[in-house]
Amino acid sequence: MNSQTWLLLLEGAWTTVWISAVSIAIGVVLGLGIALVRMLRIPFVDQLLVLYVSIARATPLVTLVLFIFLVAPTFGIVMNRNLAAILALTLNTAAFNAEIWRGAFLSFSKEQREAAMACGMTPWLCFRRIMLPQMITVSLPGLVNEMSFLIKGSPAIAVIGIVDLTRVTNRISAVTYEPLPPILAAALLYMVVIYALIQLQALAEWRAHRLAV
Amino acid sequence: MENWQIVWEARDSLISGLFTTIEIFLIGSVLAFLLGCLVVYLLEQAGPWLRRALRVAIDLMRTLPFLIFAYLLYYGLPSLGVRLDAWTAGLIALVIYHGAYFAEMLRGARLVMPAGGVEAARACGFHGFTLFRRILLPQLLIRVRPLIGNQLIYCLKDTAFLTIITVNELTAAANSIQAIYFIPMEAFVAVIGLYWMVSIVIELLVKWAGRFGRKRGFDHV
Amino acid sequence: MSEVPVVSLEGVSKSFNGVEVLRDIHLEVARGEVVSVLGASGSGKSTMLRCINWLEQPDRGTVKINGEHIGVDAQGKQMSVRALASLRARTGMVFQSFNLWPHLTVLQNVIEAPVHVKRIPRSRAVEEALALLDKVGMGHKRDAYPYTLSGGQKQRVAIARALAMAPEVLLFDEPTSALDPELVGEVLAVMRALSLDGYTMVVVTHEMEFARAVSDQVVFLDKGKLIERAPPERFFTAPESERVQRFLATHR
C-alpha cells in the first residue's frame, strides 16, 4: 500500500469519526431528554417513547439508514447523505442512551433528594447540583460502551454511498485489485479507536465504582 | 393504501428475505453460542499459551465492526485463495464474531463465580469436560441469561449488514421492492415491523428461559 | 492389611508466596479413627486438610490414601488429571461454606457425583441418596433448591453429598464455622452419629466440646507445625506443650 491509499483510508476514517462524533454528542443529550420526559410519566407521550425505544433497539442500522435516506424525499425533504447518516445513528444511539440515563435516574436514592430539599434546595437546583453530577458518573461507563457500539455499527452508513472507513476499502481495491491490505489496515484503524474507547470505559467504571462506595 | 397493496403483492420476496434472515440468524447464533461455550471450556482447561491466544482473539473481535470482519472473509480471503459465497461468508462471520461476544460474556460470569462450587466438584472427583458440563456451564448460563437476549438482538441486527455483501436477506428485500415500485415508506415500515416482531419473540423466549434460574433462587442476578 | 493407614502424610511442607504454612507434617489416620485438628486461625490446619485430597499441592512430602500415592506417584511424577480425580472420588469433603451446587435440588446435589463420576445407575444412586438424606434428617427437603435452606440444613445436605461417594475418609473443613450458633448443634449431632457408624474422619474445627467427646485423637498445629498429638482425655487435661496449654486456657 502506498501513501496515496493510506491517505484515502485516513479520509474514510475521518468521515467515520466525525459522523459518529456528531451522532454521539446529539444522542447523549437526546437520550437524557427522553429519559427525563419519561420520568414525568405523561400519558400517551410515555407509551410513545416506550414504543420508540423498543423499535429503535430492534431495527438494524443498515435498515434505518436506508429508510431515512429513501423516505425523506417522498415527503419533499431534501436529505443529503451525511444528514441521513447522522439522523439514523442518532435515533439509534439515543434509544440506548435513554435506557442508560433512566437506569441511573431510577437508582438515585430518595434520601439524597430529601436531604437536598431539607437544605432548602428547589427541585431544579437539586437536579442540577446533586442529581445530575452523580447520574453522569453512574451513566458514563454505559454511555462509553454505547459509543463503541455506535462506531461498530457506523459502517451501515456505507449502504447509502457514504465513503466511510469500511467503504473506502472497496474504492482502494477497485484500483489496486488487492482487497486484503486495505481491509486489514481499516480493521487496524477501527481497533485503535474502539480500543481507546474500551480503555476509557474501564476508567469510567473505576470512577463510578468509587462513587458507589 | 394502494402502496400497501403493492407491498402485499410483493410479499413473496419479503417472506423469502425474512426466511433468509431468520435462517442465518438461527444457525449463526446457535453455532456462535456453542463456539462461545467451547472457548470458555478451553480457557478453563488449556495451557497458558492457548489461553492467551484465545483472549487476544476475543478482544480482537470486540474491537472490530462486524461489517469489516465480514468484508475480510468475503472480499479479503479470495486473495489467499479461499473463495466463499456471500451466504457462507456471512454465516461464518456471524458465528466467529458473536461467538467471541458469547465467550466474553461467559468468561465474565466465570470470574465472579464463587470458587467453592468448583472446589466441591473436584473433591467429588469431577474433572475436565464433565465438570464443565455438569457443574460450571449450567451456573454460567443462569448467570448470563439476562444478557443473552441483548446479544441475540445484536446478532439479529448484524445480519442486516450482510445486505452490503450481497446476501438477499430481509433488508435487501425491502430495498429491491422500493427500487422496483418506488414505495420506500411502506416497504421499510413493513420490514422494520418484521425485525421488531422477531426481536420481541427473542425477548419473550429468553424471559421464559429465566424461570429455570428463578426456581433456583437466581432472581437477584 | 488393616495396618495400612487410610490417610498418611509424610514430611508435607507448603508455602504461599514465601510464607511457610506447613512445615514437615507427619500424620497417620487409621481406619475408623476420628481425628480432630485444632489450632489458631492461620496455623495451617485447613491447608493440611486440603493437601489430603490434593486441592492444595504440597511443595514437599508425600500424601497417601489407603497406601496409594495421591498427586504425585512414588517416582515424583505428576499424576494425570483423571487418576487424581478418581482418587479424590474416594474421599469426601465438607466445606465451611457448604458449596452446594445452586442449580441442582437437594437430591440432585447428592446423586450428581455418584451418577456422573462413579457411573452408578441413577435409580440405585437415588435409592442410596434418599437413605443418606434420611440419615442426616433432610429427606423431607429432597426437591428443594439450596437457596431455600438454612445454613445447618445446607451443611447436612453437604454431608450427605460427601457420604454418597462411599468415601474411605471424610474431611471436614471447619464445618460449623459459618453457621449461626443455634444451628451448630444439628450439624455436630450428625457428625457424632457418623463417628459411631465407624467412619474415618479428619475434622478441622474450633468446637472444643466436639473434639473432646467424639475424637479418638486430637492434633494441634502451630505456625504450620504439628506440635502435639494425643487422645482427647490427655490432650485436654495434660498437654505436653506449653503452647497448647495457653491455647486451651484462652479457649475454654
Notable features of this structure?
heterotrimer; A: 213 residues; mainly alpha; MetI-like fold; 0% strand; flat; B: 221 residues
What's this, in brief?
The complex is a heterotrimer of chains A (213), B (221) and C (252). Chain B is mainly α and 221 residues long.
Q: Which spans of chain B of ≥5 residues are poorly predicted at pLDDT below 50?
A: none
- The unreliable regions of chain C are none
Under CATH, the topology of chain B is which? MetI-like fold
What's the total count of β strands of chain C? 10
What's the Cα radius of gyration of chain B?
21 Å
Q: What is the fourth-level CATH superfamily of chain B? A: MetI-like
Report helical residue fraction of chain C.
25-40%
Describe the protein's architecture and organization:
- The complex is a heterotrimer of chains A (213), B (221) and C (252).
- Chain A has eight helices and no strands.
- Chain B has one domain: MetI-like fold (Orthogonal Bundle), CATH 1.10.3720.10.
- The N and C termini of chain B lie far apart (48 Å).
- Chain C has a domain of 69 residues.
- In chain C, the strands form two sheets. Chain C has a six-stranded mixed β-sheet with strand order 6-7-8-3-9-10, with helices on both faces.
- In chain C, strand 4 and strand 5 form a beta hairpin.
Topology:
The complex is a heterotrimer of chains A (213), B (221) and C (252).
Chain A lengths: L2 H37 L5 H14 L2 H11 L9 H26 L3 H9 L4 H31 L13 H10 L3 H33 L1
Helix pairs in contact in A: 1-4, 1-6, 1-7, 1-8, 2-4, 3-4, 4-6, 5-6, 6-8, 7-8
Chain B lengths: L1 H8 L1 H35 L2 H15 L3 H11 L9 H27 L3 H8 L4 H31 L11 H12 L2 H32 L6
Chain C lengths: L6 E10 L2 E11 L4 E5 L6 H8 L7 E6 L2 E2 L11 H8 L2 E4 L11 H11 L5 H14 L15 H13 L5 E5 L7 H16 L4 E4 L3 H7 L2 E6 L2 E6 L1 H6 L4 H9 L2
Parallel strand pairs in C: 3-8, 3-9, 6-7, 7-8
Antiparallel strand pairs in C: 1-2, 1-4, 4-5, 9-10
Helix pairs in contact in C: 3-4, 3-5, 4-5, 5-6
